[in-house]
Model the fold of this input.
Amino acid sequence: MARPMHVVSVHASRFQWHNSDLNYDILPTLRNLRLSYVREVGYINLRCVWSVGCPPDIRPFEGEEIEAVGESEVAKNPISGKGVYRKAFQELYLETRIPSLVAISCFSQFAVSRQTVQRHGKERYLHLRDWLLNTSLEESLNGRIFESSWHSKSSNVLTPSPTSLLACPY
Done:
């Protein structure tokens, strides 16, 4: 079975407030996407902004005291994606070192090359799917964990620089 050269993942609705286009339209982003750049780097986030995730907003080794608080404390201070990131990352990527800082523009829209997808076997993707289906985390948390971690298996960049964001692939 022939696999596509690229996979692009975007939200179902064309207009989203978090699209990089001034009119919040994903279509110009897709029209201007340089697929040769996707092949070259393997993975790109389709949002090129230095806010909402960049600079680093997840520090998996800070806030370790969250695990030790009682239920009444959790009710007063709900656990964020930052608070559960380390444990979830360990469950998702068993053999991968947990990054000390994570920075990525959020909202789960990306492009990836076939070569990058094929670096991992079917079992890896089944493991990720099963984690999503079986985790006790709320959807808002498991989605945030996914959008801020899956690039770690597709890219060498866990913390982009402002200049790398200026080199957007459009």
